[in-house]
């Protein structure tokens, strides 16, 4: 989510200089004259940007803890709103009342074979000026954990994902009635207690292992950036793959008079008690475990031998919460468009944090503010965007995307009519540009990346990212970085505020940010501070300025383009890759199942004649039947042709200087906006109807991680062959609907 690209030495020979004629290149969505005007506008925009503003605002916004419902969280919202008003935006604060539990009891004790009481606290350090604000800091906890008081043997479950439980089952280890301990990583944190509960565990502990997030990576804070032995990661464990937002108001805005579910009926609240801890508190617990030695891939960097258990370690876990409803304050600032005011380009970043939140989220928030200030200065000279620009500072993102989701749900009908594109950022740091989102915007965001200069290497940020791919990528990434003009953007799962826009309403979305060279183990801790960030994150705010330039160009081009700058060939190509992946997934499962079942039969036959041998055969898996992927293949053929014709028609018209303008452009825009809507179904995905997008969704067992063609892919993974066949037909019809909208766009373009 944070675009943490592996860091390596990038050879200077791979750093490609930008073309001297870059300023003469056409811009997607613009006529030749329009592109020239746009580049001149962006030159003026760049000249208005001030790095010092980012530092000043970060220091102000991170001066005190500002979680949702906190006094300083409200003060920050009011401060941000005041800035937007001063810059000329029509600004308001929208309030939503959301469920946000805070802890009143937290106890974790090792009671056998020895005794240890977990400290569950992060100490202040002299080098960090805000780390001593204990009276205002949220303690170490997981929001939306169940209340619980449990005592049981401990079992180590590695990352606590479904594949880890298969390993446990193969070793004859059962977690029913046990408390599990899992390390952060491998999936989103909320998946760990969810899967544990499904396997019968009665409690879950999550710790940060130093191999992933501590001294194994580098010097620990305050000497270095990495998590120290008492640092811990707070975070939500709501079942967000079911739906994000306020757990008590699914599908509707959490306004003061909204009808709310009873706590006992809220489906996204965790069913067992959960508590995060530091690796200092985890060491005595893990060291007390016996049982089998953990597989090689399960071993972290703590100074001990990793055992699985169960026992002899026995722990007592008790957590209780204040289940309160608190106000969340979204700041919404609008600059009305001059020609197409009912087409909205929405730009968002959240302002709430678990504690002081310098990297997450304020590093992104201050870049957004500087974009908005510079655009406001342009507007004061008489310039106006063609489309309406909406800047949003979301509250309550950290507990589960509450501020953005409630706003989207409250204004769903209006957003379905007017929402054109949503652009999201979150944390930011030194390093490489990360780009993810709707693949209809892939060509557009690559153009933006070609026109932003990396502050360290003085080359386009796209070329620096390509150089990194050629050095650090796998074989396919290396090949594509060398042969493909554009970088392939990632698909969006979840974990930030684009989720309700893209996956609930079908508004084309982007998520951008820099990272990969800003070391850190401050995530969701009291050490995510101004002092930490200005030492290790982006000391000179150079990449904060680069983000403002990137986000500003993205917003300005989308707002000013003659027609919305969508291209469909990258989308159809990407969908083709996804169809190949699900087809291969089924083929691989068929082969794996046959091999496994044959192995069981061979073992039974081998031992059948020897009564002294005891062998309990695992249950054979049902064979994978023939799956007819022809509907998807046929739909893809049509989609490819529709995409090719639109893109070639657009290219021919722009070459001839005939980009649609005025009323014709508005009619075309309306169709282009509908192409992403066509990727959704009102019925949503199986068993989670809130997620309506049929191409991208967070995985039911990955959380943040994306599942593409989720209805088909997850049905295969769950071995539900009837549902797989149904979903193949459903997704094929969706793709045909998208192709129909593209055909309409081509007709309008002509």
Notable traits:
Aminopeptidase; disordered N terminus; 7-stranded mixed beta sheet; alpha/beta; single chain; 21 helices; Transcription Elongation Factor S-II, Chain A; about 750 residues; Glucose Oxidase, domain 1; 18 strands
> What is the CATH class name of the largest domain?
Alpha Beta
**What is the C-alpha radius of gyration, as a whole number of Å?**
26 Å
* Biggest sheet details: 7 strands, mixed
Oligomerization state: single chain
| Envelope shape | globular
CATH-assigned homologous superfamily of the largest domain: Zn peptidases
Number of domains: 3
What is the fold-level CATH name, i.e. the topology of the largest domain? Aminopeptidase
User: Kindly state the mean pLDDT as a whole number?
Assistant: 93
CATH-derived architecture of the largest domain: 3-Layer(aba) Sandwich
Helix content: 25-40%
Q: List the uncertain runs.
A: 1-21
Q: Would you tell me the structural class of the helices and strands?
A: alpha/beta
Tell me the strand percentage band: 15-25%
User: In total, how many beta strands?
Assistant: 18
Lateral strand order in the biggest sheet? 1-11-13-12-14-16-15
User: Span from first to last CA?
Assistant: 39 Å
């Amino acid at each position: 989510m944070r675009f943490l690209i592996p860091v390596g030495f990038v050879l200077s020979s791979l750093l490609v200089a930008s073309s001297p004629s870059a300023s003469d290149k056409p811009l997607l969505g613009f006529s030749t004259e329009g592109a020239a005007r746009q580049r001149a506008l962006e030159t003026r925009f760049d000249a208005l940007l001030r790095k010092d503003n980012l530092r000043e605002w970060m220091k102000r916004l991170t001066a005190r803890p500002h979680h949702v419902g906190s006094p300083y969280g409200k003060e920050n919202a009011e401060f941000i709103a005041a800035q937007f008003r001063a810059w000329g935006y029509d600004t308001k604060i929208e309030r939503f009342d959301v469920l946000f539990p805070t802890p009143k009891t937290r106890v974790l004790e090792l009671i056998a074979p020895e005794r240890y009481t977990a400290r569950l606290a992060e100490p202040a350090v002299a080098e960090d000026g805000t780390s001593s604000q204990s009276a205002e800091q949220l303690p170490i906890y997981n929001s939306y954990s169940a209340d619980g008081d449990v005592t049981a043997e401990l079992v180590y479950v590695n990352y606590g994902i479904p594949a880890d439980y298969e390993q446990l089952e193969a070793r004859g280890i059962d977690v029913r009635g046990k408390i599990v301990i899992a390390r952060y990583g491998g999936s989103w944190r909320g998946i760990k207690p969810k899967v544990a509960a499904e396997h019968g565990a009665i409690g879950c502990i999550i710790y940060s292992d130093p191999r992933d997030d501590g001294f194994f990576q580098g010097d620990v804070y305050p000497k270095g950036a990495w998590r120290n032995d008492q640092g811990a990661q707070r975070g939500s464990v709501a079942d967000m793959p079911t739906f994000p937002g306020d757990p008590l108001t699914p599908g509707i805005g959490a306004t003061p008079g909204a009808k709310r579910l009873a706590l006992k009926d809220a489906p996204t609240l965790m069913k067992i008690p959960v508590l995060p801890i530091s690796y200092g508190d985890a060491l005595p617990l893990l060291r007390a475990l016996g049982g089998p030695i953990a597989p090689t891939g399960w071993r972290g960097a703590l100074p001990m031998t990793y055992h699985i258990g169960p026992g002899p370690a026995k722990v007592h876990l008790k957590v209780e919460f204040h289940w309160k409803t608190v106000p969340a304050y979204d700041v919404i600032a609008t600059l009305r468009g001059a020609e197409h005011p009912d087409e909205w380009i929405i730009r968002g970043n959240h302002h709430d944090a678990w504690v002081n939140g310098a990297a997450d989220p304020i590093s992104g928030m201050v870049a957004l503010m500087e974009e908005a200030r510079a655009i406001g200065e342009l507007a004061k000279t008489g310039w106006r965007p063609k489309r309406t620009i909406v800047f949003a500072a979301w509250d309550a993102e950290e507990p589960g995307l509450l501020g953005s989701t409630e706003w989207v749900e409250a204004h769903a009908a209006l957003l379905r009519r007017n929402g054109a594109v949503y652009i999201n950022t979150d944390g930011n740091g030194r390093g490489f540009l990360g780009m993810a989102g709707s693949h209809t915007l892939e060509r557009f965001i690559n153009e933006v990346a070609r026109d932003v200069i990396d502050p360290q290497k003085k080359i386009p940020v796209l070329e620096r990212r390509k150089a990194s791919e050629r050095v650090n990528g796998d074989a396919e990434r290396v090949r594509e970085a060398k042969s493909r003009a554009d970088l392939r953007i990632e698909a969006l799962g979840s974990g930030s505020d684009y989720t309700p826009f893209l996956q609930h309403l079908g508004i084309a979305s982007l998520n951008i940010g820099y990272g990969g060279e800003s070391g850190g183990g401050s995530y969701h801790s009291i050490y995510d501070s101004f002092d930490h960030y200005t030492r290790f994150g982006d000391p000179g705010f150079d990449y904060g300025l680069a983000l403002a330039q990137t986000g500003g160009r993205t917003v300005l081009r989308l707002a000013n383009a003659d027609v919305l700058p969508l291209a469909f060939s990258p989308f159809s190509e990407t969908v083709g890759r996804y169809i190949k992946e699900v087809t291969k997934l089924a083929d691989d499962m068929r082969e794996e199942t046959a091999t496994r079942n044959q192995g069981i039969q061979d073992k039974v036959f081998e031992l059948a004649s020897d009564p002294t041998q005891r062998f309990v055969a695992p249950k054979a898996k049902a064979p994978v039947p023939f799956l007819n992927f022809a509907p998807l293949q046929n739909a893809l053929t049509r989609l490819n042709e529709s995409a090719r014709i639109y893109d070639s028609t657009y290219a021919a018209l722009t070459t001839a200087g005939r980009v649609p303008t005025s009323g014709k452009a508005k009619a075309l825009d309306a169709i282009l906006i509908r192409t992403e809507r066509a990727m959704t179904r009102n019925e949503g995905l199986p068993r989670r109807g809130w997620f309506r997008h049929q191409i991208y969704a967070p995985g039911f067992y990955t959380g943040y991680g994306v599942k593409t063609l989720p209805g088909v892919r997850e049905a295969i993974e769950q071995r539900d062959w009837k549902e797989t066949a149904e979903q193949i037909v459903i997704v094929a019809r969706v793709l045909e609907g998208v192709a129909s909208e593209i055909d309409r766009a081509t007709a309008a373009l002509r």
